[in-house]
Design goal:
By secondary structure, the protein is of the alpha+beta class. The chain has one helix spanning about 125-150, and strands spanning about 25, 45-50, 65-70, 70-80, 95-100, 105-110, 115, 120. Strands 1-2-4-3 form a 4-stranded mixed sheet, with no helix packed on it. A two-stranded antiparallel sheet has the order 5-6. Keywords: Membrane, Transmembrane, Transmembrane helix.
């Protein structure tokens, strides 16, 4: 994805839809900052060129190779922060695993069959029970309202 020399003063909002990008060029733009989360979901990004005034997103630890070439900084080889030897592995709650979510970003995904807040609930959502109670309540309330309100309806 070549966005070089596009006179960008900030990261375009549509960039979030380009998470499948492997190579991204933002050089020769008057960018001042890269907001946190600008590259959320960019797990396939392997080469990123930014103006020299900016650092690589996630810092130099998020990339295997950071080089300066003229007026640009080239960030290559996105590292997996979950199995990094730079620091401790990312602390995910019990019953979950760490997964990369962009340069220097991680997410914790629940192991099967756990779900919910901090992956504390086990099993699946009780759809049949929920649907049964909701359906019964809806039909009962509808019949009650139909029975009490039909006498107020005018007949022609």
């Amino acid at each position: 994805l070549d966005l070089s020399n596009c006179s960008l003063h900030s990261v375009p909002p549509g960039l979030a839809e380009a998470t499948a990008a492997i190579v991204l060029d933002l050089t020769e733009n008057p960018l001042t900052t890269l907001p946190n989360g600008s590259f959320l979901g960019f797990i396939h990004l392997q080469s990123l060129a930014v103006p020299l005034t900016l650092e690589c997103p996630g810092g130099s630890d998020a990339w295997q190779d950071v080089t300066v070439d003229g007026s640009s900084r080239l960030c290559q080889g996105q590292r997996n922060p979950c199995n990094s030897s730079v620091g401790l592995a990312w602390p995910c709650p019990e019953n979950s695993v760490c997964a990369p979510d962009g340069p220097g970003l991680v997410q914790c995904l629940c192991d099967n069959p756990f779900h919910g807040y901090k992956c504390l609930r086990e099993g699946t959502f009780p759809m049949l029970l929920f649907g049964g109670i909701l359906g019964t309540a809806t039909v009962s309330l509808s019949l009650l309202l139909w029975g009490t309100q039909r006498r107020k309806a005018k007949t022609p």
